[in-house]
Every structure is written in C-alpha cells, then in structure tokens.
C-alpha cells in the first residue's frame, strides 16, 4: 500500500505530481491511499509528491475536470481522479463517455462544485465595516472548498472597493490591486450587521407574492444550509406562515369604489373610438386610418400598416405586393432587400425617386412565424380585394399619370384581374378612369423575383428588362426625356 | 401628502412591481469594472441572489419609479381607479438604493418600470435619467433592464437602449379584444410599433460588419403575457408568442398567472392564480424555442393544454406511431421529441453512443428521466413491447399533484 500526503485539501498540483509518478510506476488505484492529515497512517511509509521521469498526455478536458473535482468535499475525490487517470491509459476516450459510472460520478462532483461557486457568487452578503475608505467584509460558508475559485469574480465586479470574504476554509482579501489568500476564519470573526439590511429585508418581503407560495422551489434553489448567513432569510418562516391567509383575504375582499376625482381623470384619458370608415381626404388620413383597418385579418400578426410614401402629386406611382419583415418593423415601404434592388434599378433607369409615390397592394405584412424568423406568404385574392380600398384612396389622392405594377399581386390590385406578368409586361396599357383621371399602366417584375432567380444569366436578363420597364414608365410620366 | 420615508416607499414600489415575472439578468454583454471607477460586471449568465418563498428568483432590484398612473388597466394594481397606497421615488433615491444594494452583493442590477405620470414622454425621460446617472455619473457596469413606455417618443426609447442591457414592453393580454376591454387606454399598435423600432435598433447595432467601434446598446427585449385574466385559450397565447418571437426576436416571452391583487377591479374574477397552467405554458414555449416544435403541433388556437401531463408527453401520446425510438440510432431531432429526454441528455446520448451501445442504466446516468422515457424508447436490452400503445400509458405518466401548487 502506497500512502501519499498532499499539502492541502485542494492541492491539485501535488495530486497531479504524485499521480503522474504512480501511473508511470504502474501502481494500481486500489494500492494507493491519499491523505492530507499529518498524523494518520504513521505505520506505513508516507511519501510526498515528487516528479516522475517519463511523461504522458491526457485530454485537456480531464485536467479541467480534475481541477474542479479536487474542490469537492468528498473524501474519495483524489482516489476517484487517480482511478480515471489510470483507466485513461487503456481507454483513451473514456472522458467522452458520460454514461461510464466513474465519469458520471466525477461529472456529478464537478457539477456540485460549479454550483457551489455559483451559489457563493450569489449568496455572499457584504457588510460595510469602514466608510473611509469604503471597506466591506462578509462571512460565508461554501458547500465545497471553492473560496479561492470563486474570488476572482468578486475582484472583477468590485474592483474599486476594498473587501474581505471570510470562510471556514480560507479568507480572501482584495485591496484594489491584488487578491490575498489566508487561512480559514472563525464565525466569531464575522462582521456585524449593516444598516442597509433592514431595507433589503423590506424589499425581500415586498417582492414576495403570497398568492404564489412555493416553498419547495425556494428551498431547492436556496438550500437551508445557506440561510444562516443571509440577512433576509430570517423573514421566511413568517412570510410562509401568513401567506395563505393573506392570499385568501385578497380573494375575499370586495373592491372598493374609486374616488370621483380619479374616475373623471380616467374618462379624460379615454381614447377615441376606432376608425369609422369614411373616405379619407388626405394621405395623412390614409396613413392614420389604415392603422386601425380591420377589413381582413392580416393586421393581427403584423406590427403596423405600411402606407404609401412619396410626393403628394407624383406623376408616377409604384405599387408593390406587400411590406416585408423590415418594412413591417420600420413602417416604411421598400426599405428591405427588395427595396434596395428597386432603388438601384430606379437609379439606373434615371427616374428620380423623390418625384414618385411608392406603395403596396396590401398594407399589412402577411407571414408565418418560423422560430425566430417570419416567412413571407403571398396575400390571397380576398386580402388583395379588401385592401384595394386603401390603394384606390391613394390613387384618387395622388392622381398619377402612370402606375407601375410590380409583380402579379400588384397587377391584380390595380386592374382587378389576375394575369401573368410575362404576358403583359414591357408595354403601356390603358387604365379605365376611376375618378382619378386617365392613367396608364406598366406591368413588370417584382424586385424580389430578381433576387430569387438562381441562374445568373437569367437574373441579368430579367434585371435589364426590369430597368427598361422602369425607364419606359419614367418617360411616359415625363420624368425623363 | 405626507412625506414617506425611503423604507415605506420601497415597500410600496416593490410590492407594485412584483406582478412582472421577468427578473432575468442574462444575455448582457460581458464586462467588468476593471479599469473603471465604479462597480459592476455582467458575465453572460445571470445570478439569482435570493429566492422569495414564492420560489421566484430575486436577481434585480425590481421597482417602479412611481405607482401613480393615469391609465385604468383592470388587471393592474396600479390602475388609476385602485385605492392602493401611492409613492414616488426621486431619481437620486433609485440611484442610491441600486448602488447600496449592489455593493453588498444583494442584486445584479436594476429593473425599473413605472406607472405613467403626466405623459409617456415625461415618465420615460425620468426613467432614462436614472439609467444615465448610474452609467455616466457612477460608472455602474451592472445590469439594467428598463421598461419602455409604448407611447413615449422613439428618440427616448432609443436613448433608453443606450443605457440598458434589456428593454421590454408588456403586451399583458394575449388577445387584442381583451386588451380593448380590460386596458382601454393601451394601444396594441403603439406597443407593436415600439417593439418593431427596438428590434431594428438592436439589429443595426449588433451587425458585426460595422467598422466603427460599436456603442454599447441593449442586447435584447422581452415581454409578458398575463394568463387567466381574460378568456384567451392556451393555443391563442402560444400563437401570440410564436408571432412575437418571429417578429421582434424577443429573447423571452414571460407568462404570468393572473394573481389576485389587493383592491382588485370588478371587471376581473377573484380567484387563485393558475400556476400549473403557467408552468405548462412555459414548457410549451420551451418546446417551440429549443426542441424544434411548431406551435400548431403543440396545440391549436382555441384549445387548452392538458394540465395533467407535460406538453411533450401529450404530443408523444397523440403521435404513438412515431415511437418507440431507438436511442442508439435515432438522430438528434427525433431524440429531442422523446418525453424524458432533455436537450442536455440528448447531447450526452449522442456522445456516449459513439463508444458503446446504451442501456437503460446508461440513460439514467446521462440524466434522462427513465420513468418517463421508458415507454417511448428502445435501448440495449430494453424494448417497451406493447407499453407504447398501452391503454393506461397516460395514467402512468400523470404527475402526482404537487401540494405546493394550487
């Protein structure tokens, strides 16, 4: 039997040095006793860690695992780790097997240590011990020997404070520059109560909702072992005991009538009713009224109606299909990817955008949620028909000489008839007078159609046709010579 | 009006804030106070500094600036017509309280909300002043969550984003028609437009392609839906969530069981909060976000979730033809749909089965809930036989009622 004495309960380096030597010498795990105590096993020859000659490698994940398992309070931690190291020689992929019993045990210990560190970050309560300079101290009892491991977090968070954390295992002190570790302290060294604790307890009691009492959940996350060092925990028994009665009283109590003054103020703030359906007489009115439109169900999942935008009496009007994701969020037409294609083509055709009016056949974004994205869906005939009311209002108010329908949905909205773009594009068509004066129609592709064409040649051809159609419309509207 | 001391104000304004379920302090950018003048850090994962006896995490100092409010939302304790005691903090009081609590390691930061006083803009301005003072005057680097007032100007909302890690706007009621009757002054359009603008602002600032040094800006936004204050079904609620996640990239939708409030409105039923229903909604929400389920698979609009089993088990019971699944061969997507297998257990199964064929004992060791999974899986030395199609399978999977949930 070999007996190895380590220099402290968390002496990872000592364990590593000794374990390396033992494995190199072929000493089996059940032939090693690990100890920290000085006076045990006096009968057996005790050795302290000394380096071995040869070297071997282990996966880095094992070193990380061992570093945290060493901090566990379990007495078997050193021998479990040596057993894993021993087995790694014959089973190099052991570390990747979460189902192995030794690995599962080590992983549980690693998890318990990580949890103890996390809980220490959470449950340390500093007390002000000196005001000049501002100095804080805390007494804490960690579940495992994690004081040194948990300390850097406090140094990063409270860099510009002076503080000390005392625990039975070790003490750490921060002076604004360096962390100093010293021996464990006694509960009698704990700092005395801080005046803010009364306020903190007030907060704790007030944020608790007695109608939702769930003691089991509280104890699971804030185990009772931590309570004696938490100033707020002394309120728990009473809060728990009175909760049911408080909740029952709230349910039973009849509401008291509000004061008159208050009712009058509330009435003053009541909003106007929804849109009443009269014909809008200005573009601003169209924009405001479309927000409360309920002519179809698309408003429900959309952010807002996206009305047309542009010169009030533009000679040229572009009608797209519907707002997309970006347009829906911004409340403006043609600002997304298709809008950029459109903008570039317009420039190439020489049509000044600020003298045109840009709108959509359907004013709300039709889509389907798919995780964190929204997938575009083509509006159906019913939705296009319902929304023509708004497009007609815009046509009546803008009175354009030329309308460009971008895509089949737009053509349907402008003419009321469905027709494939390929058959009608590239030439001026006459529109019947709808009270907005004589207007000509040019049908062309929707810019997102260009984005979707997979073949580069076809895309370039379609783009050239698109620019040509825009130029034709600009000429008809006398915006370009 | 009598002058209230800070302790009384804190009692009133924390009590008024407790119906907001959100307390998360996660997802902020990584930073600490090294090289700064003040205190504070955020390291990605949030920390719960205490737990109240309701089992809820206390991570942030969650308070209202004031509980005076000009609105009359029926479900809210702070509505204008409630006779609850009123109070208002000054900017300095909130700043001092936050720093004093933070330095003693009670909290991760501040979650500030408010009743609407005078106007949306006025209220938002006061809230922004607090965040600004913490960040600029005190170099505070802890977490700040600001509630946006939907009708406040877009410029103020954008300024809030400069100082906050997260912003949120509560929709509260899953159905727009109930929003109209229970919160007559709230305009769902205002809320959605404000969320839309915020998503564009967050997206724009998060673009990695931007060359200019990125000014820090809020990383995420969230919202809350109240469960049980109106007639919305679970299906309605989840459909609303699915739409919100897609439209505004919310990091979370919180579900808050409607809780009886002191001096409740007559427009609402007085009853105990449906906590189990809230729990099932969170489970269903998780399935949508991390387990690849689409909302219609979990539940249709107008329908309610089965309270007796979790929604994944309910789905498996409805789709028994897809089971049993062989844990030694099935792909990740399929394993994620097995009751009793969480995302972590699935990852471990995928790692462990590269070395050996897995038995039921192995499944237990990788963290699977074997009792729940056994009727739905095949493993080395295990087949469920007729159990998958057994008539009484559901009865065996029903969780015993927990006494603490009522």
TrEMBL record, chain A:
- According to its UniProt record, which protein family does this protein belong to? Belongs to the uracil-DNA glycosylase (UDG) superfamily. Type 4 (UDGa) family.
Annotated GO biological process:
DNA repair
Sorted alphabetically, which keywords does the UniProt record give?
A: 4Fe-4S, DNA damage, DNA repair, Hydrolase, Iron, Iron-sulfur, Metal-binding
Annotated protein name in UniProt: Type-4 uracil-DNA glycosylase
Q: Which InterPro entries match?
A: DNA_repair_put, DUF4130, UDG_Type-4/5, Ura-DNA_glyco_family4, Uracil-DNA_glycosylase-like, Uracil-DNA_glycosylase-like_sf
Could you tell me which residue ranges the Uracil-DNA glycosylase-like domain spans?
307-471
Name the species this protein comes from. Answer: Caulobacter sp. 602-2
Pfam families in the cross-refs: DUF4130 (PF13566), UDG (PF03167)
From TrEMBL, chain B:
> Does this UniProt record's set of keywords contain Iron-sulfur?
yes
**InterPro entries noted in UniProt:** Aldolase_TIM, DNA_rSAM_put, Elp3/MiaA/NifB-like_rSAM, Endo/Exo/Phosphatase_dom_1, rSAM, rSAM_sf, RuvA_2-like
Question: What molecular function does GO assign, one term?
Answer: iron-sulfur cluster binding
Domain named Elp3/MiaA/NifB-like radical SAM core: residues: 59-284
- Per its UniProt record, what Pfam families does this chain match? Radical_SAM
Identify the cofactor(s).
[4Fe-4S] cluster
> What keywords tag this UniProt record?
Iron, Iron-sulfur, Metal-binding, S-adenosyl-L-methionine
Superkingdom, natural source = Bacteria
Name it. Answer: Putative DNA modification/repair radical SAM protein
Species: Caulobacter sp. 602-2
């Amino acid at each position: 039997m070999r007996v190895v004495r380590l220099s402290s309960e968390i002496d990872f380096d000592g364990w590593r040095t000794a374990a390396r030597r033992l494995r190199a010498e072929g000493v089996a795990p059940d032939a090693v006793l690990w100890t920290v105590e000085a006076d045990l096993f006096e009968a057996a020859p005790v050795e302290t860690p000394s380096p071995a000659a040869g070297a071997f490698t282990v996966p880095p994940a094992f070193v990380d695992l061992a570093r945290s398992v060493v901090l566990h309070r379990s007495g078997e931690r050193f021998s479990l780790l040596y057993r894993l190291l021993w087995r790694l020689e014959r089973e190099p992929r052991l570390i990747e097997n979460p189902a192995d019993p030794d690995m599962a045990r080590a992983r549980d210990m690693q998890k318990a240590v990580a949890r103890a560190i996390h809980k220490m970050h959470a449950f340390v309560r500093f007390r002000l011990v000196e005001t000049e300079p501002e100095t804080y101290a805390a007494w804490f009892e960690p579940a495992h020997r994690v004081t040194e491991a948990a300390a850097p977090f406090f140094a990063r968070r409270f860099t510009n404070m002076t503080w000390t954390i005392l625990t039975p295992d070790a003490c750490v002190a921060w002076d604004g520059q360096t962390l100093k570790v010293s021996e464990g302290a006694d509960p009698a060294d704990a700092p005395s109560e801080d005046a803010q604790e009364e306020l903190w307890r007030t907060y704790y009691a007030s944020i608790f909702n007695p109608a939702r009492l769930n003691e089991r959940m509280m104890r699971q996350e804030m185990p009772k072992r931590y309570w004696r060092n938490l100033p707020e925990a002394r309120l728990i028994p009473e809060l728990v005991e009175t909760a049911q009665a408080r909740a029952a009283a709230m349910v039973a109590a009849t509401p008291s009538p509000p004061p008159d003054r208050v009712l009058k103020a509330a009435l003053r703030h009541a909003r106007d009713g929804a849109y009443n359906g009269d014909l809008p007489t200005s573009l601003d009115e169209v924009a405001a009224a479309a927000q409360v439109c309920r002519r179809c169900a698309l408003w429900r999942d959309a952010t807002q109606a996206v009305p047309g935008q542009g010169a009030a009496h533009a000679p040229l009007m572009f009608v797209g299909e519907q707002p997309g994701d970006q347009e829906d969020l911004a409340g403006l037409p043609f600002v997304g990817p298709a809008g950029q294609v459109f903008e570039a083509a317009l420039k190439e055709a020489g049509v000044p955008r600020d003298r045109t009016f840009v709108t959509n056949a359907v004013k709300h974004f039709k889509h389907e949620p798919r995780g964190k994205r929204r997938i575009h869906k083509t509006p159906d005939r019913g939705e296009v028909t319902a929304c023509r009311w708004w497009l007609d209002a815009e046509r009546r108010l803008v009175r354009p000489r030329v309308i460009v329908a971008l895509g089949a949905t737009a053509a349907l909205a402008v003419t009321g008839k469905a027709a494939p773009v390929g058959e009608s594009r590239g030439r001026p068509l006459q529109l019947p007078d709808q009270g907005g004066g004589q207007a000509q129609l040019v049908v062309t592709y929707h810019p997102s159609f260009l984005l979707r064409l997979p073949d580069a040649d076809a895309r370039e051809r379609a783009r050239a046709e698109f620019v040509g159609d825009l130029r034709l419309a600009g000429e008809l509207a006398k915006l370009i010579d | 009006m009598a002058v209230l001391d800070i302790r009384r104000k804190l009692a009133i304004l924390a009590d008024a804030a407790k119906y907001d379920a959100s307390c998360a302090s996660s997802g902020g950018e990584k930073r600490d106070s090294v090289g700064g003048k003040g205190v504070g850090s955020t390291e990605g994962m949030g920390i719960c500094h205490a737990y109240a006896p309701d089992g809820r995490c206390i991570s942030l100092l969650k308070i209202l600036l004031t509980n005076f409010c000009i609105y009359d939302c029926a479900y809210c304790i702070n509505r204008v017509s409630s006779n609850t005691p009123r109070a208002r903090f000054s900017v300095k009081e909130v700043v001092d309280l936050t720093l004093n609590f933070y330095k003693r390691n009670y909290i991760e930061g501040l979650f500030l909300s408010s009743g609407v006083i005078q106007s949306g803009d006025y209220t938002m301005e006061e809230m922004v002043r607090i965040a600004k003072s913490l960040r600029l005057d005190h170099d505070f680097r802890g977490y700040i969550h600001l509630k946006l007032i939907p009708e406040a100007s877009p410029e103020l909302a954008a300024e809030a984003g400069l100082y906050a890690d997260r912003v949120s706007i509560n929709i509260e009621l899953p159905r727009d028609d109930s929003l109209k009757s229970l919160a007559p002054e709230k305009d769902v359009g205002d809320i959605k437009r404000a969320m839309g603008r915020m998503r564009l602002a967050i997206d724009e600032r998060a673009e990695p392609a931007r060359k200019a040094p990125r000014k820090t800006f809020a990383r995420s936004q969230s919202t809350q839906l109240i469960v049980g204050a109106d007639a919305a079904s679970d299906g309605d609620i989840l459909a609303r969530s699915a739409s919100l996640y897609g439209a505004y990239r919310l990091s979370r939708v919180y579900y808050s069981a409607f809780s009886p409030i002191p001096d409740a409105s007559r427009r609402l039923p007085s009853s105990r909060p449906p906590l189990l229903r809230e729990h099932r909604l969170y489970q269903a929400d998780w399935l949508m976000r991390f387990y690849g389920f689409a909302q219609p698979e979990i539940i249709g609009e107008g329908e309610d979730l089965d309270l007796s089993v979790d929604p994944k088990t309910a789905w498996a019971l409805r789709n028994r033809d897809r089971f049993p699944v062989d844990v030694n061969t099935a792909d990740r997507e399929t394993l994620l749909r097995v009751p009793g297998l969480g995302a972590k257990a699935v990852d471990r199964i995928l790692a462990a089965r590269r070395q050996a064929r897995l038995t039921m004992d192995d499944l237990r060791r990788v963290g699977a809930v074997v009792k729940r999974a056994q009727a739905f899986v095949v493993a080395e030395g295990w087949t469920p036989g007729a159990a998958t199609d057994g008539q009484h399978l559901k009865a065996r999977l029903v969780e015993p009622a927990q006494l603490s949930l009522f």
